[in-house]
Design a protein that fits this description.
Order of helices and strands: HHHHHHHHHHHHH
Number of strands: 0
Radius of gyration: 19 Å
Distance between the termini: 31 Å
Oligomer: single chain
Amino acid sequence: MTEHRLFPYFLILAAGMIWGLVFSLTLIATAQGAHPLGLSAWQVVLTAAFFLVACLVSGTRLFNFRNLRHYILLALVGITVPNLLYYNAAPHLSAGILSITISTVPLFTYGIMLVLRFESVVARRMAGIVLGMIAILLLVIPDQGLSSDDASFWILLVIICALLYAVENVYISKGVAPDIDVRELLLSSNLVAAAIQFPLAIYLGVDESWTWLASDAGLAITGIAIGSGFAYAMFFYSIKTSGPVFASQCAYVVTISGVIWGIMIFSEQHIIWVWLSVIVMLLGLMLVNPDEEVEVADVNNSINVEESF
């Protein structure tokens, strides 16, 4: 059956709105004082469960020891370290600020590709990186009056998360064979992350039993895991059917919807510097996005969502 011509737009809108909601769910998850390691550990378990079902339904291979080095690196750089930084910083920032800062991922991705000479210098895209940095400065330098006296520190911490996601993108794009199914990669990486985080949580005395999942924080983590899983699926499908350039527009939806969800759920109010940062960041994303479709091999190799958000 032929898909409606608006279906690709529905995919990136739905994925972007779900990811934008994740920032508000994160604030709910951290509001009750649960340990960041406990939050992250349960998230990776639930995410792994989601992709386990996806692999079983589709008949995808579950785990390949030949790819273990990929799983370990992604479990550390793309999941464990950024999760812990993110859950530590989230209680000190608003959902809107989180959505703006995490949108620096495509800017960092292009910057790293440029340094490693995987990309050539393009004046327009360099201007996009500059605008992205200006957008962050608009958040850090002025007196924000945010939810924390040291908000600038926590903003920079979340930016480190974005940098790690960008490193993950480049590694997946250039270091992981395109024939590795993304569902296998996400399932196995989360399983390895769980194998790292749960023993560490036990060692540190972090006690978030399975009954904790019935709390508001636990339900929020469940929502993050399941929602992100569906968003991943829609985003990757849009890459395969419409190309990475079209799919990259999801970044705009994530930024805008993250701010809007924060206003709707928490009645967040932002000063003029924050709105200026949103505008400048969106302009930067517009400039840094590639203007030509890549070949099919490159499309299949661009399998990580953070490359576009």
